[in-house]
Each structure stands twice: as C-alpha cells, then as structure tokens.
C-alpha cells in the first residue's frame, strides 16, 4: 500500500514529466516553424544554375519543417500565380529585367532580400586576352578602327557573337552598336548562342581572336576566365533601348578581368541579380521563410561553376541534386547558420 506522501511524490513526478513534455513540444514547434505547412515554390524554366539553388533553398525550408512543392514555369506565369495566391515563392526572378512585370503585381507580391548572387551579375563584351594585349585594346569604342575590327572577322569587319534572336540582350547589343557608331565595323551575329559560343571557346583555346557578348555568372565565364583568357571591354557610355529597364549606372566596381585594369568597369548595363519574390500574405504569415531567404546568397564563381556543369552534363535531376549535395556538404556551417536564422525569427 502506497502512503499518502508516496502518492503525492508520484503525482509530483507525473506533473513534472508532463510539464517537461509540454516544454519539449513547444521547443520543437518553435524549432520547426514550418511544421504542417507547405511552400508552393516556383523555379523558372531557364534550365540554369537556379535549379541548383532551388534544391538548396528547398532543403533549407525542409530543415525548418516545411513541405515543399516545386513547380517549373516562366516568370510571367509565376507573377500571375503569386498575385492570385496560387504560388508562394520564387528565388530566380531576373531583376531589373523583370521589374516592369513585377510592378504590375507589387500590391500582392514583394521582393525579399538583396538577391541570390553576391555582388550581382554583369553583362558585357569580351575579347581574347592575347589579342587585347598585343594590340592594346582596352575599350569597345576602339572597334571603330577598321584595322582592329578586321582582326575579328574575314571581310574587314568584326564578327560579334550576339544573343539568340528574340532575347532582349540581343536588342541591347544591336542598340549599342548603333549608338556607339560601330555598325560599319562590327557585324552582329545572332544565331544559336550556345553553338556559336562553343566555337568561340575553341578559338580562344587555339590562340585565335574571338569577340562576343556574355554575362556572368554563366558557363562561358567558367570555360574562359576573365582576366586570364579573355577581358571585358568597357563601353563608352550608358545606353539602353527604351524597352529595357535599368537600375543605376553601368559603371560596376570590382569586375574581374576588365580590360586595362579599369575599376569601375563600364559594362553593357548595371548589375543584375536573381531576386526573390513572394506572395505578401504568405510571407507575412511565415517570417522564418523571409529571414531564411534574406540570408541566402552564393558567390559569382560558384554560380558560374554550376552553369558550366549544367552546360557540360545537362540539367538532369541527378546532376542538379549532386551539385546541391556537394555545396551543402562543403558549406555546412553556412547552411546551418541560414536555417538557424529562420528558426530564430519565430
């Protein structure tokens, strides 16, 4: 028979155990702010390194307890779905290129963080370093000289590899060739960009002249390293067609491989970035997601490496997941700190 004092002691232990379990449950709920919730996450159909970051973001969200449902669609459709509350988040919206379309939905959606690329990406003109050094070419404006232009073509005009027909970057190039008075000496070559650039890379590797438009991060700037095999040619002034949005000056500081060592380097346009956009109601209800995304960004060389691998090996789930796994394994402390920031936001 248990004495009264013994019964009291049992009840006390039981109450303490219940309190501990309650506190443990509360702590677990706080540690997993996404428990029982789903993030409807969109990735664009661009088939690039954004697929790798989408996997890293998804895994971070899952660490916070969220289920993640990924949809692949173009950015225009994402904006419509986010405004209607049918999708919650995307982290690969090209800004400022997509800014006009975003302004149409900014009452229902908002920008989160400062972009997924540390320092932002750049766009501009490049030539092989061998020719640049031999002929002291340090500016795009020098291509007005027929003798210099002839180095990059077979009929006295330079062949400039431009973007695919229909790509807005090609419109920028054509506008600038006209604006800078280069149409008489430079021919804009618009075809299948990837195919044209494979030959351009081969030319540089063979020690032959090459002249092309590119952006970074991209596989091109992993295959041909600015400052080592190619150089960026500064443009003479800021100039964009009316239909292409811009944000700030095309003078970009710290561009590696700018011809003549110019810093800042005047690129074809101001820096761009992969921005994150979320439905306003969703992000207001999920501060852990907001804080997580605000922390996440990756160095430009990392992006270029991913782009190079995708160009070489394809954008299969196996290749994308391998790169995401490798990055998380090699940067576990950074990844864990991002997740902790999300947990601490609640």
Structure report:
By secondary structure, the chain is an alpha/beta fold. It has two domains: 36-117 and 273-344, D-Maltodextrin-Binding Protein, domain 2, CATH 3.40.190.10; 122-266, D-Maltodextrin-Binding Protein, domain 2 (3-Layer(aba) Sandwich). The protein is built from 14 helices and twelve strands. It has helices at residues 4-31, 50-63, 75-84, 99-103, 129-135, 146-149, 168-179, 193-205, 220-223, 280-285, 287-295, 300-313, 317-330, 332-344; strands at 38-43, 67-72, 89-95, 109-112, 122-128, 158-161, 186-189, 211-216, 230-233, 251-252, 265-266, 273-279. The strands form four sheets. It has a five-stranded mixed sheet with strand order 2-1-3-12-4. β1, α2 (50-63) and β2 (67-72) form a beta-alpha-beta unit. Residues 13-29 have low confidence and may be disordered.
């Amino acid at each position: 028979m248990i004495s009264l004092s013994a019964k009291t002691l049992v009840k006390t232990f039981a109450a303490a155990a219940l309190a501990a379990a309650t506190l443990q449950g509360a702590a677990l709920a706080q540690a997993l702010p996404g428990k029982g919730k789903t993030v409807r996450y969109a990735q664009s159909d661009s088939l690039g390194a954004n697929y790798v970051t989408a996997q890293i973001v998804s895994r971070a969200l899952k660490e916070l307890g969220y289920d993640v449902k990924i949809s692949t669609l173009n950015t225009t459709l994402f904006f419509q779905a986010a405004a209607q509350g049918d999708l919650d988040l995307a982290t690969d919206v090209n800004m400022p290129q997509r800014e006009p379309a975003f302004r149409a939905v900014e009452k229902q959606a908002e920008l989160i963080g400062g972009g997924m690329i540390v320092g932002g990406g750049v766009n501009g003109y490049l030539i092989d370093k061998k020719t640049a050094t031999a002929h002291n070419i340090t500016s795009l404006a020098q291509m007005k000289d027929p003798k210099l232009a002839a180095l990059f073509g077979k009929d006295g005009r330079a062949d400039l590899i431009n973007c695919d027909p229909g790509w807005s970057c090609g419109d920028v190039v054509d506008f600038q060739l006209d604006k800078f008075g280069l149409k008489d000496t430079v021919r804009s070559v618009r075809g299948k960009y990837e195919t044209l650039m494979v030959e351009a890379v081969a030319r540089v590797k063979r020690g032959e002249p090459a002249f092309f438009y590119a952006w970074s991060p991209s596989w091109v700037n992993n295959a041909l390293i600015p400052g080592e095999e190619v150089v960026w040619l500064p443009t003479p002034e800021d100039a964009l067609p009316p239909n292409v949005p811009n944000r700030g000056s095309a003078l970009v500081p710290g561009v590696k491989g700018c011809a003549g060592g110019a810093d800042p380097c005047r690129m074809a346009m101001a820096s761009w970035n992969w921005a994150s956009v979320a439905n306003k109601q969703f992000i207001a209800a999920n501060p852990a997601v907001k804080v997580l995304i605000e922390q996440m960004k990756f160095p430009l060389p990392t992006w270029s490496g991913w782009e190079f691998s995708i160009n070489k090996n394809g954008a299969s789930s196996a290749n994308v997941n391998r790169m995401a796994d490798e990055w998380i394994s090699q940067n576990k402390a950074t990844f864990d700190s991002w997740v902790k920031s999300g947990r601490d936001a609640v």
